[in-house]
Amino acid sequence: MKSITIKGSERESVGKVATKALRNAGLVPCVLYGGNQAVHFSAEVMAFKNLVYTPNAHTVEIDLGEGKSFNAILQDIQVHPVSDKILHIDFFQLFDDKEITMEVPVKVTGTSKGVLAGGVLRLNTRKLKVKALPKNLPDFIEADITTLEMGNKLYVTKLANDNYKLIHTENTVVAQVRISRAAMKAAQEAAKAAKAPVKGKKK
Q1: Other residues' Cβ atoms within 10 Å of the Cβ of residue 11
Q2: Which of 85, 98, 120, 124 is the most buried (most CB within 10 A)?
Q3: Residue 123 belongs to domain spanning
Q4: What is the pTM of this model?
């Protein structure tokens, strides 16, 4: 999985007054969990642009200077309900020998036979939760829809991979090809035409 580097500074004061001062200065207060003790730090708002405002998944290298750096993933984010301004971010530290669970985007590939026949593709879930060692975390999960006929569903079991485990029930539908209104109407009209008596036909 691709990594983004965020440069920040450790902070000692973690009270409401100090936190408000950071936000007024254009900084985002953050906490890194998962290690022996929580690490409080802050970074500029723009440092999170490619991490937060993207559909892609990334790991993060938190660089606090003086040789202090941590590998992590974004765990939780708080934004202002009106302005959408980032208020606070929690990270979770990664370790090479410990599995981690995170959401990864689904990437649809191929052209469905059902869609070519007039069906409509519906992506039921745009992200899937995976559990893996950090080195095995995928950038995305490929969902090949080539074999899907009209009315078929693609289940999460078809996306199994030896490098990671998908944390979903076996009946989870990733994508499906639904019959479009136009196709349904055409089928109904064809059925009616087949049942209708042929004019001029002798008994």
Answers
A1: 18
A2: 120
A3: 101-194
A4: 0.80
